[in-house]
Every structure is written in C-alpha cells, then in structure tokens.
Amino acid sequence: MSDLAKTPESPKTPESPKSPGTPEVSTEKPAAGKPAATAEPSAAPIPAVDPRLLVRAEGLAGYWTEFTRKVRGGELGSLPVLVGLIVIAIVFQFQNSNFLSASSLANIAVYSSGLGIMAVGIVFVLLLGEIDLSVGSVAGVGAAVWAVLNVNHGWDDWTAVLVAVLSGMVLGALHGFFFAKIGVPAFVVTLAGFLGWSGLQEWMMGGEGSINTPSGSIVENLTNYFFEDKAAGYGLALVAVLAYAASLLVDSRRRRAAALPARPTAEIVLRTGVVAVLCFAVAYVLNEPSGARGLPLALVLFLAVLVIADFVARRTTFGRQVFAVGGNPEAARRAGINVDRIRITVFALSGMLGAFGGLFIASLSGGATKSVGGGNTLMLVIAAAVIGGTSLFGGRGKVWSALLGMIVIQSIQQGLNMIGMANAIQYMITGAVLLAAVVIDSVSRRTQKTAGRA
Q1: CB neighbours (10 Å) of residue 330?
Q2: Tens digit of pLDDT for each residue in 7-45?
Q3: Residues in Cβ contact with 329 at an 8 Å cutoff, skipping those fewer than 6 apart
Q4: CB 383 within 8 A of CB 441
Q5: Residues of the chain with pLDDT under 50
Q6: Taking a C-beta distance cutoff of 8 angstroms, is the pair 39, 417 a contact?
Q7: What is the pLDDT of residues 238-252, one digit of tens each?
Q8: Which residues, 6+ apart, have CB-to-CB distance to 7 below 8 Å?
Q9: If both were cysteines, with which of 123, 168, 173, 224 could 351 make a disulfide (CB 3.0 to 4.6 Å apart)?
Q10: Buried (b) or exposed (e) across 425-450, using 16+ Cβ within 10 A?
Q11: DSSP state of 180
Q12: Helix and strand tally (H, E) in the chain?
C-alpha cells in the first residue's frame, strides 16, 4: 500500500480567490492505482524468464544444477531406462562377446519393431489413464484378415494389408465406443475383446490353423528385407540428424519471435552432435562389421511410426487433448474438449497399430497362425510402454517410451538366449524389470507431489 493511501484525507477548506500570475494547482486526488505526481518512479518490470533456461547460461554447472533439480523433484524422465540399457549391455557383453555384434543388434531391432509399433498404441491409451488388454487378439485378427484375403481369396497384397489394418482400427473404435458412450470400464471391454477376438481369429483361420506367407509378399518383406546398400543406413542417419537440428532451430526461432526464452545456439549444437554420434554409430554397426546385413526395413517402418506418432502427440491439438483428458477428464470436459471423441479415437489408434504390428509377427513366424498375438505378446507390449517411462496413472509419458522399453525387453531376451537361459528365467527377469519400472513411476509421482510439481 502506498504512502498516499495511508495519509488521512484532510478536511475541505473554502477556495481562496486566485491572484493574477499565480499558477493553478490541482487539488484532485490521483486516480486509484496511479502514483502521485511527486511520487518516485516505480522500478521497471522484470521480464519473466524460464528458470530451466536461466541455468543453462551458466554452462556445464548450469546443466548439472538443472539435472539435480529435476532428480530432487522426481522428474527422472528416461534416465532409469538409459542406465538400465548400459547395465544390460555391459553384463551380457561380458557373458558373451557377440552380444553387441552386428547380427545380434540387427535381431534386436527387427524383433523390437512389430511389438514396438503395438506399444506405441498402448502409450496413447496409457496417457488416458486406461488400459487395452485386447491388443494381442487384435493383432491376431489383423494377421488373419490379411492371410485369408490375400492367400485364400487372391486379393491384391496392398489391398489386403490395408483392409487388415483398418479392421484393427474398427475393433479398437468399438472398444472406445463401449467405454466412452456406454460407460463400460476399459479393463472390462478390452478383456471381452481379448476373448472375443481370439475366437474370431480361430474361426477365420479355419481347420488348418495356419496360412503360410507367400514368397516375396509385402508381409514377408516386413522383417526379412534389408537395405544392403550402405548409403541407405548412412543416408537415414543424416536425414535424422538434419531433421532434429531443423526442429530445434525452428522451435528456437518461434520462441524468440514470441519474446520467450529459447535454447542458446551452443546447446542446439551440442544436442545435434550427440544425436549425430548416436545415429551414425548405429548406421556403422548395421553396415560395416562382419556379419552385418544392412539397414532392416522393419526398423525403418518402426521409426517412421514413432516420428509420426510423436508429432501427433506433441504438435497437434489432438495430442494436447489426449494429455489433458489423461490428466483430468472433468477439467478437460469443462474446457470444451470432446472427451468421448478423444477416447474413441485413441482406442481406434491402438487397434490400428495393433493390427499393423500383427503383420510383423506373422512375418517373423512365417505366416498367420492361431497363435499370432497370443502367448506373452500382451505382456511384452504393455511392459515396453511402462518400462520406457509412460505412467500408468495417465497424463504423462512420451511416444519414444515404446522404443526404449522394447529395446530393454528385447535386449534382455536376446542376451538370455545367447547364454542359454530358460524361458522361465526370462519371464521372471522381465517381470522384475516391469515391477521396477512401476515402482520408479510411483515413487517419482509421489516425489513430484511432495515438491509441488505433480
């Protein structure tokens, strides 16, 4: 409160006649909120600056300050996954010197692709705070639709693939309809889908129970085609680095144009350099060492799905609405978001990616069978999303969680297979890793609430 406001108002005195030459003095009180003419000028407003960008001006010390602040606040991000991958690589490489060989890493990439694509759909569902237990059965139906149309009925390869993917989208939208419009819990409706679509898959496959993949077909090439030309691997790495650098520069330019704090040029160069080293290292391993077969088509398709899904999640209105609904559905509804439409669309997206991933599984197994999508498929897909850092509580996570989580799972399985470990041990270790990821997520969320960041 200013001194002017604290001074009691003086009683009015009769006006005295003004003598000639006397300047006129105003006796009016200044308007509320405006300082008096004799008051000292107020200090200039301090522009708001993002503290996360302020610390970066301190150099390496600033980055360390920001890192410790995030850890104390429970914002771990992908740190546990990256540490886990380093530990896995060291342990299995020590047990078997071929774990980090070109052929081993190519197998991890190929086997991660189909399940990883399915995990991308699960990430969107988890962002809503829900679960989809039907993704394995939907994958089996997608593979069965493709096989029956293409092999038994002679449909064009591309058309059969398209119809298979669209069939998964329809099944997912049906789950979303019962969940959003009828009010059936997602757990129940997708569990019913898991049972029902498994029966549909067996019925479509008929008495034979399996349909072999035709030689040279699209589905066969999904996991069996490698770009032997080295230019493909290095070219993809170059495109990825340039695209990443361009996205950072565009984002920085937009923030500066809006008078918002932006990343300094040195940080952009550093980030781009780290990504360049990683991308070209992967390209080198896939192309140069003995036993290298080149760039797998499956990895290219997986990365394409990740890039598109990440753009949708972070750069579109739909993506922001998904996070809003997952964070607080009622608040999202009051903000004007069509919550039912978002939920139906997300489950349709999960079904579509599930059916697409089912084609990869059929490619790996040599054809569509009654077991496609069965076994531990559902467990691995959900585990990949959670291990990668997507929260089970909704509203928090990244699409790239599917990549990180699936690499962790496939690396564990690849390493255990190479040292001759039984499947029972693999299941127990994978289950322990999943439990650890959920515990980290729960502790992180509790820490964020304590720090006032949740």
Answers
A1: 9
A2: 444 444 444 444 444 444 444 444 444 444 444 544 544
A3: 339
A4: no
A5: 1-39, 41-42, 44-49, 51-55, 57
A6: no
A7: 999 999 999 999 988
A8: none
A9: 168
A10: ebeebbeebbeebeebbeebbebbee
A11: I
A12: 18, 4
Query: pTM of the full predicted structure?
Result: 0.81
- What are 211's strand-pairing partners? 368
Token digits of residue 396: 């928090």
pLDDT of residue 438: 75
State the DSSP H helix or E strand holding residue 368, giving kind and residue range, or none if neither. Answer: strand 367-369
Predicted local confidence at residue 160, as pLDDT: 95
Distance of CA 388 to the CA centre of its chain: 9
Conformational region of residue 366, where left means phi above 0, alpha means psi within -120 to 50, and beta covers everything else: left
- If you search the block for the tokens 């598109």, which residue do you land on? 308
Residue 299 confidence (pLDDT): 93
Residue 296: φ, ψ to 5°: -75, 135
pLDDT of amino acid 239: 94
Residue reference for tokens 């998904």: 322
Q: Which two tokens stand for residue 385?
A: 């999303």
In 366-422, alpha helices (H) = 377-387, 401-418
| 8 Å CB contact between 78 and 387 | no
Tokens linked to 202: 């067996």
Alpha-helix runs per DSSP H in 128-185: 135-147, 157-177
Q: What is d(CA 38, CA 236) in angstroms, rounded to the nearest whole number? A: 68
Token pair belonging to 359: 């084609």
- What distance in Å separates the CA atoms of residue 185 and residue 155, rounded to the nearest whole number? 38
Contact 232, 295 (CB under 8 A): yes
Alpha-carbon gap, residue 223 to 234, rounded angstroms: 20
Rounded CA gap, 126 and 168, in Å? 18
CB 168 within 8 A of CB 355: yes
